[in-house]
Amino acid sequence: MSQLAELETTDLMPDDDRAALAPEQSGIGEVSQTRLMIRRFRKSKLAVISGIILIIMYLGAVFAPFLSPNDPAQVDANYKFSKPSHLTLNGGPGICQVKQVIDPVTISSHYVTDCNNAIPLRFFGRGFEYKLFGLIPTDRHLVTVDKGKLLLFGADSQGRDIASRMVYGSRVSMTIGVLGVIIATILGSVIGTVSGYVRGPTDTVIQRVIEIIMSIPQLPLWATMAAVMPPNMSVTGRYFLMTIILSLVTWTGLARQVRGKVMSYANADYVNAAKSAGSSGSRIVLTHLVPNAASHIVAVSMLAVPTAILAETALSFLGIGMLDPAISWGVLLQDASKIDVLQQYPWVLIPALAVILCVTCFQLLGDGVRDAVDPYS
Amino acid sequence: MTQTTTEQATDISDQGQGTPESAEHKPLLEVTDLKKHFPIRGGLLRREIGTVKAVDGVNLSVNRGETLAIVGESGCGKSTTGRAILRLEEPTGGEIVFHDSELGAVNVESADRQTMARIRPKMQIIFQDPFASLDSRMTVGRVIAEPLVINKVLQGKALRDRVAELLVEVGLRPEHASRYPHAFSGGQRQRIGIARAIALNPDLIVCDEPVSALDVSVQAQVINLMEDLQSRLGLTYMFISHDLSVVEHISDRVAVMYVGRVVEIGTTADLFYNPKHPYTEALLQAVPQPDPRNRLEVVPLKGDVPSPASPPSGCYFHTRCPYAQPICSEETPPLREVKVDGKATGHQAACHFSDELKLKGAVVSSIETVPQTASASQAAGAPSA
User: Fold this and answer.
1) Which of A56, B73, B190, B338 has the fewest Cβ atoms within 10 angstroms?
2) What are the start and end residues of every segment in region (Disordered) (chain B) (predicted)?
């Protein structure tokens, strides 16, 4: 009981923080939480690399027509399930010619590649016409050939260029998931915040509804929705309907996460301090709860994107998502659903690599963001 | 706002420096039969299947300019009492009368929105955990300005000036306003919390274990700052703590709580050296003594604190009381005045035998000054409330 009496002599001086006692050094302790998070994020190499790869992939989606040597929708009976073109450096970069040879004995035809008379690759050459950004009409492409067809990853059942279709497919596949998650995030944040802050019967009702939605088996639900969708629907119509379907199943998990965060922040002492100063509920939500929960919401949404992309791919693969005139990775993979096709023309599986790359990158990026936002979770 | 502070400060400093007992005893806050029950819900429909009586009929009053300490072990409801008084937890029942200089006596428990909006700035709170009580996304300047912004007291440059003034007031520097809380140590953060609490020139500050999370050396600094502010700004503290040495140092009067009830309340000297409730005796004896000549003589309490969801009958302490008699498990003893030689002392205890028991007080340390006895402090003008 005497400790205090002895220590009473200590000056009324600030505590032992060196930083605070140092003469005016600009910037000390003036780094906001957001900037600290960005610093932490930059430290995780894997996440940064994934982010860069994703940016490149999105740029690829924007410049899809420029990158594609062939019109992705062009059907060509001569190139059905054609092998990927054989690249050669014989006489500059080019592709080998393919000649059909008929065996004089069996009269069966087979293909012979001839690399001695390679067809040269032409960079920034002319190809099919398109409008860059939907505005500037042009016909320039990154790589073209003058003769034959440049099929980097082979052709599909209707002789369409798989490489070009893959690039085009990213436009749908890489945006539909993100858009779905954005809608889900808005829905989940609002409902989760209401549920976590208002509590009481409102919270109970919302939570029971979420439980019911979560317990509906997803695949039959999707199949039903696909059956209800009019078959002659336009590609854009289907696209937006798909985003809504994807967001309907993801918002529930998000709403729960947000609710939990809001509940814990609503009991924080700084919220109590604001209350004791007479702050209104809406002010507390907007100045304390939402900014604190925001980073967590971003991290959780990031991690929901790969799931949504996979869901779109799976649905399109099953024929209940995007349908053929539309080009998405799931639609491309439909060709790979027959075992004999897969056996003879394995290159139809190449679009799956794009899915794997994209999903992995989103996964790693999401992990990096989560670690930067909540280093202790 | 600032003007009123200086007025108040000069007003109080005349009396604040001397013995607080000699000041005129106007209660600032009177709490009568305050209850806060938490429902225990269970089952499919989340029906109420029981109640935790965290605060179960607390009676106390806080005089203007004094420091009333509330002590008790973890879970005895001392923090909940503080929060219920500020309506951070909605009280289940009882009366909380706040004597405001403008509005007169206001029952905070049943006050409407408009009245609450005017009363809230008069009652502020300092929290235990300095790491959880500041929003990490706000600069220190915004944290301190928040109460002023909410109540639209100041704007623009006047607001920034007031924040700088408050920072200096609590021993920090004005340029700290642009920093974020993570750049500060625990003690500094607690100073920021104090600056926020005094921003609105409150009358009453509920201090919810303000130094428990700090190092002992820093504790002393913060306590000294709080005492300094009290005398300069004429603050009234309700000091919630479990650290008896801090309580003895800072408080004028002490209330001891056990399982949601006040079991003893009196001046610090009376309560520490002449306790009238066996629980207070047990608490005081449990304080470790740094002096090898004063060894523990009392057998420590056995058993656990009863659950506030199903408290025992009669006196809640009878299950652990070494002096328990049959009546203790049958009748609940009211909080009543302890009489010394037939005279009222202002010292209240809730024990059937408070007049008969001879209880041991705090051990007089060789370094401490000789404590005042109950009669001595009365001679100096003990409260008669």
Assistant:
1) A56
2) 1-25
